[in-house]
Amino acid sequence: VAAVWLFKKRLLVHGVGHPDDAGSIAMTAVPIGIVGARAYHVLTDIERFRGRWFDVVKIWEGGLGIWGGVALGVLVGAWRARVRGLNAWAIVSCAVPAIAVAQAIGRWGNWWYQELFGRPTTLPWGLDISDYLTVKNGYSVDTLFHPTFLYESLGCLALAFVLIALEKRLQPAPGRILAWYVMGYCALRFGIEGLRIDPAHSAGGLRLNQWVSIGAFSAAALFIGITRLRSHGDREA
After folding, report:
1. Which residues on adjacent β-strands are paired with residue 145?
2. Which residue among 18, 93, 129, 164 is buried most deeply as judged by most CB within 10 Å?
3. Residue 202 belongs to what H/E stretch?
4. Is 119 helix (H, G, I), strand (E, B) or coil?
5. What are the C-alpha distances in Å from 223 to residues 71, 72, 218?
């Protein structure tokens, strides 16, 4: 709801669509984005579902991957924009900070379910979880943990403000704010993943989502490099 509200405001500010367009696009992009998020989770943890394929649809038991959600949601949103006769790049650019806001709010679900927290810490904002989960993870009941959900929530909220500020100052070429978002979120996620202690596939000392962050960051940086070479008239430094 917060993301759609911001999306509507940005459509009006940039004059690229009507507020009704935001609702229409979101009605399609958000559910499909959830499908993409579930698909990413299933594909990257497929061994958990072998022989229990019906569990794939049990989304109420948890298991969403933001990479799949953003990728499929943005693609479908761009398609819906074109169907409505709108500039897809402009619509996506308006939606990007709103996506970051949605992520900032959504991460609080990890707090409610006491999941995806980080390694032990003595910092004053350390997270106190249930004795059962603390012992289950191999720690004494008085252990506090890094609230990685909070770090990511605040980071995504800050990212949204930074993107809007950069957009006002630099007036980027179409699609570039999406690349900035990808780079910003990947840098944030890479660091947070290094704090998490939940089980995850890993290779070369890095977790799967850290490798994904490296790949997505590199692709976004390459996109920016190519578009800058093609558009020397941009105002960006």
Report:
1. 120, 127
2. 93
3. strand 202-203
4. coil
5. 15, 18, 9
**Are 215 and 206 spatial neighbours (Cβ–Cβ below 8 Å)?**
no
Q: Taking the CB of residue 202, how many other CB atoms lie within 10 A of it? A: 13
Is residue 150 pLDDT above 60, yes or no?
A: yes
Q: How many other CB atoms are there within 10 angstroms of residue 103's CB atom?
A: 22
CA–CA distance, 26 with 73 (Å, rounded to integer): 9
Higher pLDDT, 62 or 88: 88
3-state secondary structure of 203: strand
In whole angstroms, give the CA distance from residue 101 to residue 156.
6
What's the CA gap between 234 and 224, in Å, rounded? 12
| pLDDT tens-digit readout, 15-42 | 998 889 999 999 999 999 999 999 998 8
Q: Which of 175, 173, 171 is nearest to 95 (CA)?
A: 175
Q: How far is CA 209 from CA 77, 127, 187, in A?
A: 24, 23, 11
> For residues 11 and 21, is the Cβ–Cβ distance under 8 A?
yes
Instruction: Please enumerate in sequence order all residues whose Cβ is within 8 A of that of 206, keeping only pairs 6 or more positions apart, or say none.
Output: 214
Provide the token pair at 23. Answer: 């609702």
| Per-residue pLDDT at 232 | 61
Say which DSSP state 15 is in.
T
Whole-angstrom distance, CA of residue 179 vs CA of residue 184: 9
DSSP state of 172: P
Residue 36 phi, psi (nearest 5): -65, -40
Rounded Cα gap, residues 8 and 101, in angstroms: 13
- Amino acid letter, residue 40: Y
